[in-house]
């Protein structure tokens, strides 16, 4: 064992050698144990010796190398051993001393206990004296904290001091006055905290909004606040800049306040503004109320005063807007805009500004309540207080109630009950297709019995104002408004001036920015809808369900506004029809110039169009009722169409059944109407092309040929018999009336068509309507408007065709008797026109004078263009009715033609070539039949074969020397000549 243990010593300091040496030694031992021969043992022994010497050599080397380290280790080991021995010795000494002390304490136990009790009693007395000194100064310290609005430190100090007075210092008689004073301070602090909380809930930020709104002059809230926030002079101090920043954050991200839930409420007394962060300040106030044990009372106070405070905000805003926008001077000219068309009126702008400012303040109030609720929940959980908190739906409910009170004042709901019972309510709830019965002209309303009392009217929209006022009064609201202003809004009284609504005696004379009227809803409906959507999003209303404010607004519109609108529209339509009965025209040049028209229009058309424009404006003002307003447009137009048709029939259909106006009958005839509308002059007229443009493209022969075709058709229908006087419109005033009707209805139909084309059609993918944009309506309504526009245009076209035909009928009326009853074989050489021709000339001048100032020039051109070919055709075909004619008769007929041609030239400002041809035709009668036939052979054909035949027959009747056989020879020769000419051509 000695041999095996020796080589292991150097192995402890090596890295890998101990494992190798030990392994070799064990191998040698196993080999020696297992060897059977001495020779093998000697061999193993020699191997073991060699390894031993090698190990011994390595050990010497390692000892030589680590000699100093070994010395150091041995020295340290010696020091440690000495210190351990010294420590054992000291411990034994301490144990001996402790045993001695134990024996001594056991001997002095009673004396030491007495001394310890005396020390404890002395320490407690000193502590009580220190507490008494501190409590005596608590009042001043609390007052100092309250003065600096460090309410959390004041509350903590006050609560701690009162707790001491209830426990440790309870029996100190000298502190009773201090206790009473601190309790009084606690109550005053509670009141102060409540007022500070309401100030930050309802006044601080709302006053900022009023100041910034006044600076921004009613611009968009975010833009106004941003601009005012960058303006250092708006409120004057860096404190105001922080306030604006906090205000913007509360408006743009109201959910930011939720990050404070569960956070530790701390108060900085380093000298900064404690109210700079309003949310943190309100959290401190809530924590103070919780520490005071007044949190349940504070919650009840908040709920009780909420309605009153919201009313104060609206009242204060109304006063400031009224002061900032003084009443218009009495000498301002009154506007002619109807009561409900107030988009650009001063009253509408003031009401919209009031509503926007109130909305901004209410949003901040709601955000502040949300922050307070977070703080309340945190304090309730932290202090384990049992209290029934209000919720955000409760806040929104009060907001809606306050808005309903305000709207009740501006919409004048007090008149709703009487108005709704004076008119038949069923007339306004029927379908759109049944509304025409409401506008029926000259139909006396059927008397209908109404019940004296209706239960559904109690506390409904008509009495909502009274109901809300009673509710607010029950909560200490309206009657206590002055008290609220004096306590929580001290500056409101000064800012409100002497305006009404501040005291209970003037409660019925509340200050309003504009007069109360049911039509005020048109100015505020869209802003209200935006705010309603905010409320419904905040309340999480499901699709199809709405908040109470939405129900209030929609019920009011259905029950009051639409009913009154129907009554007013019916009155305006009746007034318009009366104007149509009297054929009043608008003579206001400025109004006509604004409408871009050059001819007078019927006042009735303008009145009805103004009504339609107002209804179209209502489409944008009340987009939810767009289809209803379009239905009102359609029914108004239907009634006006019937009135216009009745007026047209009153002119063109006399009372006697056996009489008829030929022009109106022909204008209604489909074939004649289609023929006239297929002519190029009608198509050019509808395309807006003037006759001058047509003449620039067509030569006079083409124009004459086109008009000659129309003349031949009319002559074929009217040339056989005389026209009775009662079958024409002989009165120029009637023609002027038709012209006014045509001009007005054409303009009116075009405007309606433009209105129908501008209306967007509803689609399943249509979204919310942006304020100011035209809302989509049903396709059926647009089609109905388009159809009505075409009806008015069609009636206008009919009037123009009647005028076109009537002028031509006058030519037949005056010229047909000339040939039938005239004497053309007179011995007098006179070129004076025939009396009937003079009447025609005068009639044409009168008609031209009546239509020139009534119709546009292109329409007058259409009416008078083509009269030359027609008159020429009438005169040339009239030769068959002339019995005999001589040179004097020919001169007389040529004089007639010249006079008519001169008058037509003055009217149309063009030379009538057709009348030149008619005069040449009659001048041909100067020649004998043979000369006429030779002229055809030499000069060619100038007239039709029938016209030559009629001329030859007239010459035969006029010359006694010519026999019937000679006439037949002339006609046979004419046929041969015209046949040869036709072949040659």
UniProtKB/TrEMBL annotation:
<keyword id="KW-0813">Transport</keyword>
<comment type="similarity">
    <text>Belongs to the SEC8 family.</text>
</comment>
<comment type="function">
    <text>Component of the exocyst complex involved in the docking of exocytic vesicles with fusion sites on the plasma membrane.</text>
</comment>
<dbReference type="InterPro" id="IPR048630">
    <property type="entry name" value="Sec8_M"/>
</dbReference>
<dbReference type="InterPro" id="IPR007191">
    <property type="entry name" value="Sec8_exocyst_N"/>
</dbReference>
<feature type="compositionally biased region" description="Basic and acidic residues">
    <location>
        <begin position="38"/>
        <end position="51"/>
    </location>
</feature>
<dbReference type="InterPro" id="IPR039682">
    <property type="entry name" value="Sec8/EXOC4"/>
</dbReference>
<dbReference type="GO" id="GO:0000145">
    <property type="term" value="C:exocyst"/>
</dbReference>
<dbReference type="GO" id="GO:0006893">
    <property type="term" value="P:Golgi to plasma membrane transport"/>
</dbReference>
<dbReference type="GO" id="GO:0032584">
    <property type="term" value="C:growth cone membrane"/>
</dbReference>
<keyword id="KW-0653">Protein transport</keyword>
<feature type="compositionally biased region" description="Acidic residues">
    <location>
        <begin position="264"/>
        <end position="273"/>
    </location>
</feature>
<keyword id="KW-0268">Exocytosis</keyword>
<dbReference type="Pfam" id="PF20652">
    <property type="entry name" value="Sec8_C"/>
</dbReference>
<dbReference type="GO" id="GO:0045202">
    <property type="term" value="C:synapse"/>
</dbReference>
<dbReference type="GO" id="GO:0015031">
    <property type="term" value="P:protein transport"/>
</dbReference>
<feature type="compositionally biased region" description="Polar residues">
    <location>
        <begin position="220"/>
        <end position="237"/>
    </location>
</feature>
<feature type="region of interest" description="Disordered">
    <location>
        <begin position="220"/>
        <end position="273"/>
    </location>
</feature>
<protein>
    <recommendedName>
        <fullName>Exocyst complex component Sec8</fullName>
    </recommendedName>
</protein>
<feature type="domain" description="Exocyst complex component Sec8 N-terminal">
    <location>
        <begin position="53"/>
        <end position="142"/>
    </location>
</feature>
<dbReference type="GO" id="GO:0006612">
    <property type="term" value="P:protein targeting to membrane"/>
</dbReference>
<feature type="region of interest" description="Disordered">
    <location>
        <begin position="1"/>
        <end position="51"/>
    </location>
</feature>
<dbReference type="Pfam" id="PF04048">
    <property type="entry name" value="Sec8_N"/>
</dbReference>
<dbReference type="GO" id="GO:0006904">
    <property type="term" value="P:vesicle docking involved in exocytosis"/>
</dbReference>
<dbReference type="GO" id="GO:0007268">
    <property type="term" value="P:chemical synaptic transmission"/>
</dbReference>
<feature type="domain" description="Exocyst complex component Sec8 middle helical bundle">
    <location>
        <begin position="274"/>
        <end position="527"/>
    </location>
</feature>
<dbReference type="GO" id="GO:0090522">
    <property type="term" value="P:vesicle tethering involved in exocytosis"/>
</dbReference>
């Amino acid at each position: 064992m000695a041999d095996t243990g020796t080589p292991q010593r150097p192995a402890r300091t090596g890295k890998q050698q101990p494992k190798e040496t030990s392994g070799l030694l064990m191998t040698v031992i196993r080999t020696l144990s297992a060897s059977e021969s001495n020779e093998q043992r000697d061999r193993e022994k020699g191997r073991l010796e060699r390894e031993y010497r090698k190990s011994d050599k390595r050990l010497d080397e390692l000892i030589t190398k680590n000699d100093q380290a070994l010395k150091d280790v041995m020295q340290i080991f010696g020091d440690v051993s000495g210190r351990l021995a010294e420590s054992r010795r000291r411990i034994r000494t301490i144990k001996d001393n402790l045993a001695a002390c134990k024996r001594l304490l056991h001997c002095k136990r009673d004396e030491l206990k007495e001394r310890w009790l005396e020390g404890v009693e002395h320490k407690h007395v000193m502590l009580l004296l220190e507490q008494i000194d501190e409590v005596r100064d608590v009042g001043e310290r609390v007052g100092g904290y309250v003065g600096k609005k460090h309410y959390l430190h004041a509350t903590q100090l006050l609560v701690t001091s009162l707790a001491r007075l209830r426990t440790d210092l309870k029996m100190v008689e000298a502190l009773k006055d201090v206790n009473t004073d601190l309790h009084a301070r606690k109550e005053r602090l509670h009141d102060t905290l409540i007022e500070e909380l309401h100030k930050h809930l309802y006044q601080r930020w709302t006053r900022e909004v009023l100041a910034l709104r006044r600076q921004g002059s009613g611009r968009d809230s975010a833009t106004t606040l941003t601009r005012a926030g960058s303006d250092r002079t708006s409120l004057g101090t860096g404190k105001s800049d922080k306030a604006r920043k906090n205000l913007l954050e509360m408006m743009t991200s109201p959910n930011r306040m939720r990050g404070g839930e569960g956070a530790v409420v701390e108060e900085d007394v380093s000298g900064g503004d404690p109210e700079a962060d309003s949310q943190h300040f309100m959290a401190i106030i809530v924590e103070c109320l919780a520490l005071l044990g007044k949190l349940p009372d504070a919650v009840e106070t908040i709920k009780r005063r909420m309605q009153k405070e919201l009313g104060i905000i609206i009242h204060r805003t109304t006063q400031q807007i009224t002061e900032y926008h003084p009443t218009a001077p009495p000498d301002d000219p009154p506007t002619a805009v109807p009561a409900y068309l107030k988009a650009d009126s001063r009253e509408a702008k003031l009401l919209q500004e009031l509503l926007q400012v109130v909305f901004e303040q209410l949003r901040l109030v709601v955000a502040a309540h949300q922050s307070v609720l977070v703080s309340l929940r945190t304090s309730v959980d932290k202090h384990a207080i049992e209290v029934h908190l209000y919720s955000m739906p409760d806040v929104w409910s009060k907001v809606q109630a306050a808005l309903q009170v305000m709207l009740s004042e501006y919409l004048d709901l007090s008149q709703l009950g009487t108005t709704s019972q004076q008119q038949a309510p069923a007339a306004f709830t029927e379908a759109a297709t049944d509304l025409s019965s409401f506008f029926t002209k000259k139909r006396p309303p059927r008397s209908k019995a109404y019940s004296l009392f209706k239960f559904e009217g109690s506390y409904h929209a008509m009495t909502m104002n009274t109901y809300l006022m009673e509710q607010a009064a029950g909560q200490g609201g309206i009657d206590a408004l002055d008290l609220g202003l004096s306590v929580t809004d001290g500056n409101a009284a000064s800012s409100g001036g002497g305006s009404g609504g501040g005291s209970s005696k003037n409660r019925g004379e509340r200050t309003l920015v504009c007069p109360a009227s049911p039509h005020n809803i048109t100015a505020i409906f869209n802003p209200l809808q935006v705010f309603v959507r905010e409320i419904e999003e905040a309340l999480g209303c499901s699709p199809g369900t709405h908040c109470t404010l939405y129900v209030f607004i929609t019920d009011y519109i259905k029950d009051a506004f639409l009913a009154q609108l129907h009554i007013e529209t019916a009155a305006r339509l009746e007034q318009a029809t009366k104007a149509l009965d009297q054929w009043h025209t608008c003579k206001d040049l400025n109004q006509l110039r604004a409408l871009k028209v050059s001819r007078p229009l019927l006042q009735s058309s303008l009145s009805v169009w103004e009504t339609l424009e107002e209804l179209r404006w209502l489409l944008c003002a009340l987009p939810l009722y767009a289809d209803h307003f379009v239905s009102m447009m359609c029914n108004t137009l239907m009634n006006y169409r019937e009135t216009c048709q009745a007026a047209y029939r009153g002119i063109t259909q006399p009372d006697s059944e056996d009489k008829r106006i030929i022009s109106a009958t022909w204008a209604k005839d489909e074939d004649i109407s289609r023929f006239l509308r297929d002519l190029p002059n009608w198509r050019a007229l509808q395309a807006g092309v003037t006759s001058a443009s047509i003449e620039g493209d067509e030569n006079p022969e083409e124009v004459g040929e086109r008009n000659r075709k129309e003349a031949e058709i009319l002559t074929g229908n009217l040339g056989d018999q005389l026209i009775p006087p009662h079958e024409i419109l002989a009165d120029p005033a009637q023609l002027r009336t038709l012209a006014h009707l045509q001009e007005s209805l054409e303009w009116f139909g075009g405007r309606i068509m433009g209105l129908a084309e501008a209306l967007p059609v509803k689609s399943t993918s249509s979204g919310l309507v942006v304020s100011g944009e035209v809302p989509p309506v049903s396709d059926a309504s647009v089609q109905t408007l388009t159809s009505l526009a075409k009806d008015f245009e069609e009636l206008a076209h009919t009037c123009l065709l009647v005028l076109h035909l009537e002028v031509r009928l006058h030519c037949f009326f005056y010229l047909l008797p000339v040939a039938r009853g005239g004497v053309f074989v007179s011995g007098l050489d006179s070129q004076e026109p025939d009396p009937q021709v003079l009447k025609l000339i005068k009639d044409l001048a009168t008609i031209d004078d009546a239509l020139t100032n009534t119709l546009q020039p292109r329409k007058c051109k259409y009416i008078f263009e083509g009269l030359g070919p027609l008159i020429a055709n009438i005169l040339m075909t009239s030769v068959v009715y002339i019995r005999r004619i001589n040179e004097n008769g020919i001169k007389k007929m040529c004089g007639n033609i010249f006079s008519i041609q001169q008058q037509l030239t003055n009217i149309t400002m063009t030379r009538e070539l057709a009348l030149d041809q008619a005069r040449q035709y009659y001048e041909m009668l100067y020649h004998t039949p043979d000369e006429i036939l030779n002229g055809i052979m030499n000069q060619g054909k100038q007239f039709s074969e029938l016209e030559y035949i009629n001329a030859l027959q007239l010459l035969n009747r006029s010359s006694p020397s010519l026999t019937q056989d000679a006439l037949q020879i002339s006609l046979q020769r004419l046929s041969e000549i015209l046949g040869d000419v036709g072949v040659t051509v």
